[in-house]
């Protein structure tokens, strides 16, 4: 430990943002063209990417783990899904028998609903954050988990505002990859902007040394709260995108699997940089797709390995453990995209 | 120049196609399908995961029906191919698989036997204009009210099933009932609700409703001691048990272990013998289900299908629900022959006209608004000393819609 290395130490450099934007653009379009199901996989991956970016903005910069972000996605998805689903379905579907009358006629266009979803995610995060940002370490992680449990149970059991444990069907879908791609690229720019801003640097200062950051005049609670709110806004966007890819809203979609998958993507990629979020999402999605094909007994580029069902989830979990053990700052080592980087 | 050339080609091919069409229709009755390749039927169903006990047997009988039709020359001269990909009971995987199958040109998409699990995959098929059928969904969710104009279930749904339970119980078992309502899934709660409505309509009375839940793994959440004690105090003539194994079997065991010998009636959820180990020497138990898998079903089509199933899989059928798989393929054949087309909307239009069609699962009807059966007769089966015995096929006098 002769040299202190601070992860995610960033000043604005054009290639750090243009590089990842280019990579995401090319891969999304290229892979999306191969087949219909890969196009769907790209759409889902872009939703996950926005969620991982949201997590990176807060978790990566502050070092405080959040298990609660899926609840902001849940709310965003609910707002955007409920306001765009067809009136006939909201008025007649079996699962929506007890739906509150005004919700049936609530009708927004796609983009207004997505914007409203972001605001909803941000507002809920701001309120939750006002309380939670006083906590540190384990307590903060558990408290955010409690927030997730709270919203999950609220939606799961309340049939006046939604389908409860069942599905809200007939939510309009995105046509192709362009719309989610554009939204994901906007999210990347926002998160990179936060990372290189003074708020971002202050937040990383509190992550590196909780004791001395206040000595520099940083209010830990305030900078965390700002990042948490922005991050909640993006989580709301991620949920709204997800609901328009899935075409249905189900509360289970924004619960444990989603939470752990996106956290695994962040940690595998490297939580300290925006590029880490992008790389983690790409790698985990790509590996997942390859394993999925092998599970189904298909061959990829002539290579075929027969995997038992469920091997995919196990391998992703095992990768996460390996990553935490041997390369704890992730694939990118917490660095931003740099085309000139030497191998270390 | 390029565009005009393209236009000419399009125009000529259109003209040729139109000419072909008129030539066809002028030939008269005989409709033939164009089939350079076999008609693809895609199945995004669960071969593993908690829906697999329902999906996998239905899928196997669907394959049996496909083989049978192919051996007899196919549908209008076209062979069928059933391509099934395991969704692992995962809705997202189901959606991706459905997308793939639809892109490959599937003309019918089979989906998982639970609406909450198949919601995403059903919508994929429906949005692409492909006929979507869940062989054994038991709720009225498949259909236009859930945005599925092309979505159907070949199952016999709760409004009919629960009405049969109530009508049989009222006529044969007694006029007072205690409800044992499993709150875990929509199927069981709606079953007890519909039972209560119909039973009261007939003039019966409900002494009390005892609620319980079971975990995802299929075990009782908490012991039902208090509920059983309440039921004992009720002294009702019948107990209606709306549940499924293993929690449902555990609840039934608790009832019998407390010395309550009252007749218990249940639905498709407690069909089969595989859970009887939990309630040794069970007697005075009744289920309403699709068909008897215990060798005494009077319907020869069912008997043949069960024999074919045993030959194909080497196993005895666990529950009667599997006959809906073969029924799905039979219904598809009927609709294609009548429509002379494999277009989703045309097939749905034919499905909507179904009026007591004679299929393996029994007479099958649909309408513009109701895409599932509620008037089809179901088998009433009793258990005495741990042995199943078929009693009768019975139709709901008044489904609870």
Short summary:
The complex is a heterodimer of chains A (344) and B (401). Helix content of chain A is 66%, strand content 0%.
Structural overview:
- The complex is a heterodimer of chains A (344) and B (401).
- Chain A has 344 residues and is mainly alpha-helical.
- Chain A contains 13 helices and no strands.
- Helix content of chain A is 66%, strand content 0%.
- Chain B has two domains: 190 residues, 3-Layer(aba) Sandwich (Rossmann fold), CATH 3.40.50; 147 residues, Response regulator (Rossmann fold, 3-Layer(aba) Sandwich).
- By secondary structure, chain B is an alpha/beta fold.
- In chain B, helix 5 packs across helix 6 and helix 10 crosses helix 11.
- The interface between A and B is medium-sized, with 29 and 30 residues.
Give the topology, please:
The complex is a heterodimer of chains A (344) and B (401).
Chain A: H1 14-34, H2 36-62, H3 69-82, H4 87-92, H5 101-105, H6 110-132, H7 137-157, H8 178-196, H9 198-208, H10 220-246, H11 256-269, H12 274-295, H13 311-326
Chain B: H1 2-27, E1 39-45, H2 52-71, E2 80-86, H3 91-103, E3 108-111, H4 115-127, E4 131-134, E5 151-153, H5 158-172, E6 176-182, H6 186-201, E7 205-212, H7 225-234, E8 238-242, H8 247-257, E9 264-266, E10 285-289, H9 300-313, H10 323-339, H11 344-352, E11 357-359, E12 362-364, E13 378-384, E14 387-394
Parallel strand pairs in B: 1-2, 1-3, 3-4, 4-5, 6-7, 6-8, 8-9, 9-10
Antiparallel strand pairs in B: 10-13, 11-12, 13-14
Helix pairs in contact in B: 2-9, 2-10, 3-4, 5-6, 10-11
């Amino acid at each position: 430990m002769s040299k202190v290395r601070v992860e995610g130490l960033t000043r604005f450099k054009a290639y750090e943002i243009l590089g990842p934007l280019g990579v995401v653009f090319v891969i999304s379009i290229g892979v999306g063209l191969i087949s219909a199901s890969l196009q769907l996989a790209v759409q889902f991956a872009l939703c996950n990417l926005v969620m991982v970016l949201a997590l990176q903005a807060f978790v990566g910069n502050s070092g405080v783990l959040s298990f609660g972000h899926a609840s902001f996605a849940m709310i965003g998805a609910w707002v955007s899904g409920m306001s765009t689903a067809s009136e006939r379905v909201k008025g007649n579907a079996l699962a929506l028998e007890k739906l509150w009358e005004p919700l049936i006629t609530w009708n927004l266009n796609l983009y207004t609903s997505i914007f409203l979803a972001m605001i909803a995610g941000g507002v809920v995060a701001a309120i939750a954050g006002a309380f939670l940002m006083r906590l540190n370490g384990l307590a903060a992680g558990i408290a955010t988990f409690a927030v997730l449990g709270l919203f999950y149970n609220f939606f799961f059991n309340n049939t006046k505002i939604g389908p409860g444990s069942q599905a809200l069907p007939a939510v309009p879908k995105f046509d192709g990859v362009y719309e989610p791609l554009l939204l994901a690229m906007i999210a990347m720019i926002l998160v990179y902007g936060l990372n290189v801003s003074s708020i971002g640097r202050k937040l990383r200062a509190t992550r590196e040394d909780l004791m001395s950051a206040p000595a520099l005049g940083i209010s830990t609670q305030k900078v965390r709260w700002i990042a948490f709110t922005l991050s909640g806004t993006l989580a709301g966007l991620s949920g709204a995108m997800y609901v328009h890819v899935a075409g249905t809203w189900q509360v289970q979609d924004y619960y444990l699997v989603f939470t752990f998958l996106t956290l695994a993507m962040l940690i595998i990629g490297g939580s300290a940089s925006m590029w880490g979020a992008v790389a983690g999402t790409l790698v985990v999605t790509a590996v997942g797709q390859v394993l999925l094909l092998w599970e189904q007994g298909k061959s990829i580029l002539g290579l075929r390995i027969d995997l038992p069902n469920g091997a995919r989830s196990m391998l992703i979990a095992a990768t996460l453990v390996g990553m935490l053990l041997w390369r704890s700052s992730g694939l990118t080592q917490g660095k931003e995209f740099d085309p000139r980087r030497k191998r270390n | 120049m390029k565009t005009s050339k393209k236009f000419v080609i399009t125009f000529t091919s259109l003209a040729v196609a139109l000419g072909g069409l008129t030539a066809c229709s002028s030939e008269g009755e005989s409709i033939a399908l164009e089939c350079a390749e076999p008609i693809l039927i895609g199945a995004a169903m669960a071969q593993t995961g908690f829906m697999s006990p329902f999906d996998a047997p239905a899928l196997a009988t669907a394959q049996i029906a496909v083989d049978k039709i192919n051996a007899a020359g196919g549908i209008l001269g076209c062979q069928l191919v059933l391509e099934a990909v395991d969704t692992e009971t995962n809705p997202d995987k189901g959606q991706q698989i459905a997308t793939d199958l639809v892109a490959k040109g599937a003309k019918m998409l089979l989906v998982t036997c639970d609406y909450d699990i198949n919601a995403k995959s059903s919508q994929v098929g429906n949005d692409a204009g492909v006929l979507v059928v869940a062989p054994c969904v038991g709720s009225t969710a498949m259909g236009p009210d859930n945005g599925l104009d092309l979505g159907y279930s070949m199952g016999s749904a709760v409004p009919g099933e629960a009405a049969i339970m109530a009508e049989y119980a009222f006529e044969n078992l007694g006029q007072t009932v205690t409800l044992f309502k499993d709150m875990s899934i929509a199927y069981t709660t709606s079953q007890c609700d519909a039972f209560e409505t119909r039973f009261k309509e007939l003039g019966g009375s409900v002494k009390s409703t005892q609620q319980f839940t079971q975990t995802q793994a299929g075990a009782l959440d908490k012991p039902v001691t208090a509920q059983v004690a309440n039921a004992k105090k009720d002294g009702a003539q019948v107990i209606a048990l709306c549940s499924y194994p293993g929690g449902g079997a555990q609840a039934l065991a608790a009832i019998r272990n407390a010395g309550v010998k009252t007749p218990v009636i249940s639905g498709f959820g407690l069909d089969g013998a595989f859970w009887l180990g939990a309630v040794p020497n069970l007697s005075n138990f009744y289920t309403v289900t699709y068909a008897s898998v215990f060798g005494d079903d009077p319907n020869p089509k069912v008997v043949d299908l069960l024999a074919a199933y045993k030959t194909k899989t080497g196993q005895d059928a666990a529950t009667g629900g599997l006959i809906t798989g073969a029924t799905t393929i039979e219904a598809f054949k009927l609709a294609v022959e009548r429509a002379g087309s494999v277009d989703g909307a045309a097939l749905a239009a034919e499905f909507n006209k179904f009026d007591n069609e004679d299929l393996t699962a029994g007479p099958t009807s649909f309408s513009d608004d109701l895409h599932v059966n509620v008037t089809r007769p179901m088998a009433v089966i009793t258990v005495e000393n741990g042995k199943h015995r078929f009693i009768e096929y019975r139709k709901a006098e008044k489904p609870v819609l």
